[in-house]
């Protein structure tokens, strides 16, 4: 569905007659405040915490490696079933004591499941335009090489991105999706290869009891007999982002909860990512090792050396894993991108996230790490000839400090230092990958 909707976006964009592509011309406004959107954790739409910083004038970008989360979607099938069950409790109440709930009498849950929504299709289309505008010379030198994990929403996002590049270039550059990695097999773009990895359930449950308790009391008083639980509150709060991105207007559920309750929901998401595939999960970072080793191969122009998630057949074939491109674009999921950040060494907190006490100054924010259409870009730069190659990493346009490889204020490490800093990946996770199956 998303791919068909994209054709509409392209047609509408063409009517503008603009000769110079405008970044984000198609993604519509959602009509809700930035603060509210940013409290939706991993369900937040893409936003840039800091504007993109071009490299120093004496440096030339020679390669761009992009990994991007799919665009905004409907709830997953399982999440949708849980939402409907919680909603049924509220709608079974014969009479509300709070008129703010009266809309529920005529409310129908009509969201799809798993697939992109039109807003999400537009996000990826616009991301493709942005890449052409920002890296035009590289895109023109050689077609970007594009891969995707096999979930339909990821495949559709990749195709929407390629259409965005083509549109921004006036069809002069028409990249295409070359490789779809089967999520049932070796796949560096999905977190499906560590059966022994734990979950974040214990930590999120601890916080859910704390943050959702006031809403449970308030809504059960307003809807006598609903008997809502803290889990129901999380399900119902999630309707705010899901309905808003699906219908491109504020959901009635956004006004059913306070900003403080949304802040609690945000931390629920932060904990989920940290203890799911992030630093709080012993076997979280190892799930990002395969992608890091593929990234190192592209940066250095050498064959992939990896014994973890990579598909060795595909990575050994120049047609399915070329080393001569200037732009690479991979499309993935939020949980896998978190694992990749952790494997690389990005966003590591000084202390673990406390399941009962949020740190208001924390830098681990799912809304900034993996919003819908989140993007990590690794740039390789030539800053003066042989031996003067460097690396920069940007997440959602925000330049990362890369202290782990000795970067200064410019966020740049020498290519050699960056490669050396990735010892965990180059050593196949220091034995952690074997623990995924032992």
UniProtKB/TrEMBL annotation:
List the lineage, top down.
Eukaryota, Fungi, Dikarya, Basidiomycota, Agaricomycotina
Query: Where is this gene product found?
Result: Secreted
Catalytic site positions: 70, 334
Question: Which cysteine residues pair off into disulfide bonds?
Answer: 59-383, 240-254, 405-413
Q: Which residues cross the membrane?
A: none
Q: Provide an example Pfam family for this protein.
A: His_Phos_2
The residues forming the signal peptide are 1-18
Q: Name one GO cellular component term.
A: extracellular region
UniProt protein name: Phytase A
GO MF assignments: acid phosphatase activity; inositol hexakisphosphate 3-phosphatase activity
Protein keywords: Disulfide bond, Glycoprotein, Hydrolase, Secreted, Signal
Could you tell me which species this protein originates from? Rickenella mellea
Note the subunit structure.
Monomer.
Gene3D superfamilies in the record: Phosphoglycerate mutase-like
What is this enzyme's catalytic activity, as reactions? 1D-myo-inositol 1,2,4,5,6-pentakisphosphate + H2O = 1D-myo-inositol 1,2,5,6-tetrakisphosphate + phosphate; 1D-myo-inositol 1,2,5,6-tetrakisphosphate + H2O = 1D-myo-inositol 1,2,6-trisphosphate + phosphate; 1D-myo-inositol 1,2,6-trisphosphate + H2O = 1D-myo-inositol 1,2-bisphosphate + phosphate; 1D-myo-inositol 1,2-bisphosphate + H2O = 1D-myo-inositol 2-phosphate + phosphate
